[in-house]
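Write out a sequence, fold above all:
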Amino acid sequence: MDRIIDGEGRILGRVSSYAAKSLINGDNVVIINAEKIIISGHLRDIVTKYKQKVELKDKANPEHSPYISRRPDLFVKRVVRGMLPYQYPKGKNAYKRLRVYIGMPSGLPKPDEHVLKKGEEVYENIITVKTLSEKLGYRFD
């Protein structure tokens, strides 16, 4: 069964945890509008935290350092991966069933609105994944 999640206006942690749980249960998950997912918190704190993660390098062997992508779809995919038991075969098989897109790709049916409702809460400090990606150095063409 395919679960299509529209990320527009939804919190990154909630989308990721729902997607991870669905993947573990054996569903295929598609996340669309990855660049419109929001992260709550102060802009400066979020950007500083992720800049440190992106620039993290091992002095002895930089090729073996963790890689955090600046592209919004890969960034969201990495967050979901962090919520899966990726070291084990169950987690790797679940991760293979995840697809994340920037925008709405053609050929997909409408997303399931009842799967994950938009948050009705009002957040004072939010940042979208698109804004975060731009602050980390990704260019949208």
Notes: The CA atoms of residues 5 and 31 lie 5 Å apart. The mean pLDDT is 89.
